[in-house]
Amino acid sequence: MEVQKITTELTFKAVRSSGAGGQNVNKVSSKVVLTFDLVNSQSLSDDEKTVLSEKLKTKLTSEGILILNCDEDRSQLKNKEIVTKRFLKLIQNALIIPKKRKPTKIPRSVIEKRIKAKRSTSEIKQNRKRPDF
């Protein structure tokens, strides 16, 4: 994955932010909407596309477009930086393939210890019974 190539494929759109902010909200478009077309991306390989489409299936539209929003700051530039960082982190985390777990063998000493404990509890319970003369 090359960050420079991917960032050229991103499209940004400035939208009026909702919520509190007074008269400034009605004038300034500070909210940033990032869209990334995963299906038609040239910077990702086919394998990476399949992995991303599988892992990000809940965040993608039916056309395979990823949409992220950011309206945390009053500045449009800061919102653009925040949403870009969020996008890159999302892609990098999705491309990480976890290692397969190797099942380990139970050590012999652990098995023997368990059997010894079972024997001792068995003997304790046997000693609680009335002696049979």
TrEMBL record:
PANTHER family xref list: PEPTIDYL-TRNA HYDROLASE ARFB
Domain of life assignment: Bacteria
A GO biological-process term: rescue of stalled ribosome
GO molecular-function term, one example from the UniProt record: ribosome binding
The name this protein goes by in its record: Ribosome-associated protein
Pfam hit, one: RF-1
Family assignment from sequence similarity: Belongs to the prokaryotic/mitochondrial release factor family.
Positions of the Prokaryotic-type class I peptide chain release factors domain: 16-32
